[in-house]
Amino acid sequence: MKGLSTSRVFITGAASGIGRATAQRFYNEGSNLVLVDMPTEEESELKAMFPERMTYLQADVTTKVGLDKIQEQVNLGLDVFINNAGITRDATVHKMTDDQWDQVIAVNLTAIFKLSRMAAIKMKEQKSGVILNAASVVAHYGNFGQTNYTATKAGVIAMTKTMAKELGKDGVRVNAIAPGFIGTPMVRKMPEKVLEMMEGKAPLRRLGEPEDIAAAYAFLASEDASFITGTCLNVDGGVVLG
Ligand SMILES: NC(=O)c1ccc[n+]([C@@H]2O[C@H](COP(=O)([O-])OP(=O)(O)OC[C@H]3O[C@@H](n4cnc5c(N)ncnc54)[C@H](O)[C@@H]3O)[C@@H](O)[C@H]2O)c1
Questions:
Q1: Is residue 27 part of a domain?
Q2: What pTM did the predictor assign?
Q3: DSSP characters over 202-240
Q4: Ligand 1: which of 11, 18, 152, 194 to mutate, judged by most atoms within 8 Å of the beta carbon?
Q5: Which atom of ligand 1 approaches the CA of 13 most closely?
Q6: For the segment 34-89, what is each residue's pLDDT rounded down to a tens digit?
Q7: HSE value, Cβ hemisphere, 13 Å, CA-based, for 102
Q8: Suppose 178 and one of 15, 64, 135, 242 were both cysteines; which one would form an S-S bond, judging by CB atoms 3.0 to 4.6 Å apart?
């Protein structure tokens, strides 16, 4: 895609699922990757998958130490920052603990704010850059057991619009993607009945693949999307249409 080759692309939560597929997609496009994730056994696998044009940062995006490591790399310049890392800690509202609330807010919302701020400062200086944020279709219609998660994803969409308004004059675009039900390893482990229900909700009658989301990130990062900012692109097989 136009403008991705040789671009310097940061992806958080890159060791698994959508993040990993996105890393693969940008690598195939010729980008230079800075991949961020928690300490994980997947690190050596990623190093084998991306033998060149890749820097791996073991960093927890909720800690100062983690953010400092990322800052060092951001100081060297960047073209695209993808805030993909996200977690769930599900419970119905009357059973949800403060910890479950705080953990999800820390990863899915506060870290995205801090990393977007970090990227925005450098991108404003450069007068160019793209920030992409992971939302979710559940931001649009709520989801049982996910008061914390849905609040963060709706927050991400609102932050994306505000940052797009503020940064547009400096040549910086900010967009979000709202994936539907994506067949990441975590989702594929769910009972057959739940998977069938998820497929049935989508007019396209299938789960999405991590590669479907990766393709959308690549498009929004590319010059083909140079007039798109402040949007949240649903990549969900039509689930949100109801
Ligand atoms: N899979 C889906 O169906 C789906 C649907 C809608 C939205 N999303 C969103 O897409 C994103 C990726 O989802 P996924 O299914 O690929 O998830 P995943 O669990 O497979 O991967 C998330 C990655 O983020 C990393 N991570 C978690 N906390 C971190 C932290 N504090 N610091 C650094 N890394 C951290 C994890 O180690 C993991 O590698 C998430 O933001 C998720 O909310 C996923």
A1: yes
A2: 0.98
A3: STT-S-B-HHHHHHHHHHHHSGGGTT--S-EEEESTTGG
A4: 18
A5: 24
A6: 999 998 888 999 999 999 999 999 999 999 999 999 999 999 999 999 999 999 99
A7: 3
A8: 135
- Does some domain include residue 167? yes
Provide φ and ψ at 26, rounded to 5°.
-70, -35
Q: How far is the CA of 222 from the centre of ligand 1 (A)?
A: 23
CA of 87 to the centre of ligand 1 (A): 6
Contacts (Cβ under 8 Å, ≥6 apart) of 46: 14, 15, 20, 23, 35, 54, 56
Catalytic status, residue 149:
yes
The reply to whether 112 falls in a domain is yes
Predicted confidence at residue 190, as pLDDT, reads 85
The boundaries of the domain holding residue 163 are 8-241
Residue 228 forms part of a structural domain = yes
Q: Which atom of ligand 1 is nearest to the CA of 62?
A: 31
CATH number of the domain bearing residue 97: 3.40.50.720
Residue at token pair 């990393």: 115
> Which protein residues touch ligand 1 with a CB less than 6 Å away?
12-13, 15-19, 36-38, 40, 60-62, 84-87, 107, 134, 136, 179, 181-182, 184, 186-187
Candidates 27, 56, 141, 149; catalytic one: 149
Report the domain count for the chain.
1
pLDDT, tens digit, for every residue of 96-140?
A: 999 999 999 999 999 999 999 999 999 999 999 999 999 999 999
